[in-house]
Amino acid sequence: MSGKSKVVFVRGGHRTEVEVLVGTSAMHAATDNLVGGIVGECGGDLSCATCHVFVDPDWFDRLAPAGADERDMLEATSEEPTEFSRLSCQVPCTAETDGIVLHVPESQ
Amino acid sequence: MTITTELSDVPDLGDPETFRAGVPYDVYDRLRALPGLVWQPADYGTLTGGFWLVTRYDDVAEVLQDPERFSSRFGSVYPLLNPTGDGPLSMQIVHQDPPEHSRVRRAAAKSFGPRVVANFESWIREVVVQTLDDALRRERFDWVLEVARFIPSRVIAQVLGVPLDRRTYIVDATIEIFKSQSLDDGGATFVEQCMKVGEYLTQLGKEKLLNPADDMTTVLAQSLENGEIDLPEYQLYAVSLLIAGFETTHTTIAHVAHLLATDPAIRSTAARALEEGKAGALVDEFLRYITPAMRFARVATRDTEIGGQAVKQNDVLQVVFSAANRDPSAFPRPNEFDPFRVDPKPAAGTGGAGMVFGAGPHRCIGHVLAKLEIRILLEELLARKVTLSMEGQAVRGASGVVNSLTALPVSVAVG
């Protein structure tokens, strides 16, 4: 089944809601829809840190935890990471995450 | 049906000498406007007897963002430095594709993140101030020698943790490595030169493991020690950082001075942009306008289509940043220097300000650092009210890869 999944990006009080095919990464959901602040320099290769997001606390636990490489790269973000930080290229949009709210760092 | 466009009346863009006269923007305008891509035959440096010229902004971005279709394995510039695809340079990060590339890149990427580099500001400013203090003592001097070479070489030496007494050696060696890049020998001299410096950096890495410091050689030596990367990767990565950290930033600093000395409109626009707090946009516009790294290369991994052109497996594509950055569909009034432009194209993965640092997995790891160096230099020149004038002709180098200036005789008025 190739359903759709919604992602809500919030940046500086501005909300952008996009709908993508299940399996798309949240990074691509943003870059394919020109959502500001998600750069995705490396294209999802997990070797930059320009797709950093703060996952809304209500949603954070629905995601599989970050791997070692992702935790490593979170050191290279433009904004200080928090316990809710993820690289959005590592966040797949699924039925589980339908409607997920991601806060985009101001300085990114 | 496959249509191949060849033009007989354009200069040989494979020949580094072609670029001594200047960047052929008018040629690029012609190529960009034609359907598909234009093919140029080449006697050496490719796998199929020539190369495609990719000149449109979107096509350049597409090639760079798709390493699965357009590989770096055989070389990232023309002539290809790893033409067999399995030579010693296969271990160099610029010749790796994901996933090997990703693993090696991560070893250093975090040391170049924006929050880390922001902490460099005060010591980089010291380097710039001291360089200008020394250079401006004289009324006339060669800006390339006294300023352009000096700032980035001191910065990258500090970033790598090279001791002061070895810094001249490192700069000279880097220049030699860079020169060997355009030789027609399948990368042999380039490898030899890289390995020489690589051995020095291996020695330095051993010292850093005994006395760890807050520098890149320590980070890389630790990655080597714990098995994240192996020895050839370590050596070639460190050498790549040297070359990348030095060559293009020095080229940019040379061109910035040349533009300030020769173009009164750019001089006043730049001053206004700085006064209005648009330093970041000003640096971006200088970089777009100059485009220090003029082009890179990729090899098609299979028969495919790009920019309306059918290309064959193993065909070389030269992605021409100089052309992409003057693409009117990405930058209206592309030949105008305008740091106040409001609509830079928001291309995914390119930072939106121009095709300067590349796109995709190989996007320049040092772009935050490079921009910081240029911004600080511009701020210090403005603060000192420095006015540059030419004292003779700027001398261009022969390179198809870098927008090379080898000498820039200037005189200086301060205040």
UniProtKB/TrEMBL annotation, chain A:
The keyword Iron-sulfur applies. It holds the Pfam family Fer2. The keyword Oxidoreductase does not apply. Residues 5-108 form the 2Fe-2S ferredoxin-type domain. Keywords: 2Fe-2S, Iron, Iron-sulfur, Metal-binding. It comes from the Bacteria. SUPFAM superfamilies: 2Fe-2S ferredoxin-like. Signal peptide: none annotated. This is 2Fe-2S iron-sulfur cluster-binding protein. It comes from Pseudonocardia xishanensis.
From TrEMBL, chain B:
Transmembrane segments: none annotated. Keywords: Heme, Iron, Metal-binding, Monooxygenase, Oxidoreductase. The keyword tRNA processing does not apply. Gene3D superfamilies: Cytochrome P450 (1.10.630.10). Pfam families: p450. The keyword Transcription regulation does not apply. InterPro entries: Cyt_P450 (IPR001128), Cyt_P450_B (IPR002397), Cyt_P450_CS (IPR017972), Cyt_P450_sf (IPR036396). Signal peptide: none annotated. It comes from the Bacteria. Belongs to the cytochrome P450 family. This is Cytochrome P450. It comes from Pseudonocardia xishanensis.
